[in-house]
Amino acid sequence: MSEVSISQKLTLAERCERVVAAPLFNQIIIGMILLNAVAVGLETSTWVTERFGTLLGAINQLILASFVIEALVKIFAHGTRPWRYFASGWNCFDFTIIALSLIPATGPLATLARLVRVLRVLRLVSAFPELRTLVDTLLRSLPSMMHIALLMSIIFYIYGVAGYFLFHDIDPTHWRTLPIAFLSLFRIVTFEDWTDIMYTAMDSMPWAWLYFVSFVVMGAFVMINLFIGVVLNNLEEAKLRRMDEMCLPPSQTEILRELRATQASLARLQKRMEESTYQPEAKGAAQ
Would you say 131 and 125 are in contact if contact means Cβ atoms under 8 Å apart? Predict the structure, then answer.
């Protein structure tokens, strides 16, 4: 491969990298995603589709073309290493949605194609760094949440079995079986008219309030606060990771661009020095 072809590829990568880094580029993509959301919402109206179905189809093709161009520009921005585009999970997410969007909207896959149009609205998450941070936080919080959910399941099981034995004769509507008891506990922990269940039990067992109050404290207050604590802790860690990513060393393309700019500046400086040296010599020769 000749040096000229390598230079041309690097130049293309630099140009694509500048386009991707430009704020206007990201704003255009966000505008296309919002336009897609509006178009998908309008397609739910029969009156609109009957009168503007062709226009909506043209808008969908325009949005799809813009997404394909965006993916190609980001891939070309990596120069001779286009596979680095897929090193980012968000790029893989965007590419998957774009690939699914190429499904034809006719035949047995028409419903799937319409659902994919709705999924394209999710690209707003990858377009905003703040939303990406929140999603990353939730994903990283899942392992800790699973442990909390396991603990909550144990508490549900204990209270469900206890509630069945205590109240299934008094209130068979809410405690007649163990699954129904679990549903009643879920109703209690969401505070959906749970006092009606408590008062029904207290008519026969005045001390039954101890059961319900203790479960509300354990199931609602303690567990929910544990979930919130895990999310907040991971959110702080995600913000620290994002700050570290912003301080990453420059890429090879950025280094080459800076070297070329430095070489151009040195060439201009050398040319000026030669001109300034040549002028006194020319004056002396003239005298």
Answer: yes
Estimate the share of the chain in helix, then strand, then coil, as percent rounded to the nearest 5: 85, 0, 15
Eight-class DSSP state of 105: S
pLDDT tens per residue across span 91-101: 888 888 888 88
| Phi, psi angles (nearest 5°) of residue 19 | -65, -45
Structure tokens at 52: 């503007």
Which tokens belong to 13? 């990568």
Contact (CB, 8 A) for 189 and 219: yes
* Buried/exposed 187-219: b ≥16 CB within 10 Å, e otherwise: ebbeeeebeebbebbbeeeeebeebbeebbebb
Nearest 10 degrees: Cα torsion 200, 206, 211, 213: 90
Residue 177, SS3? coil
- Which helix (H) or strand (E) is 247 found in, with range? none
| Contacts by 114-120, CB closer than 8 A, 24 or more apart | 114/40, 114/43, 117/36, 117/39, 117/40, 117/43, 117/60, 118/40, 120/33, 120/36, 120/40, 120/63, 120/67
* Residue 212 pLDDT greater than 90, yes or no: yes
Give the Cα separation of 99 and 125 in Å (integer).
Answer: 18
pTM of the full structure = 0.59
When comparing pLDDT for 14 and 244, which is higher?
A: 14
Per-residue model confidence as pLDDT tens digits over 101-128: 887 766 666 677 777 778 788 888 877 7
Quickly count: other Cβ atoms within 10 Å of residue 76's Cβ: 18
Tokens representing 285 are 């020769």
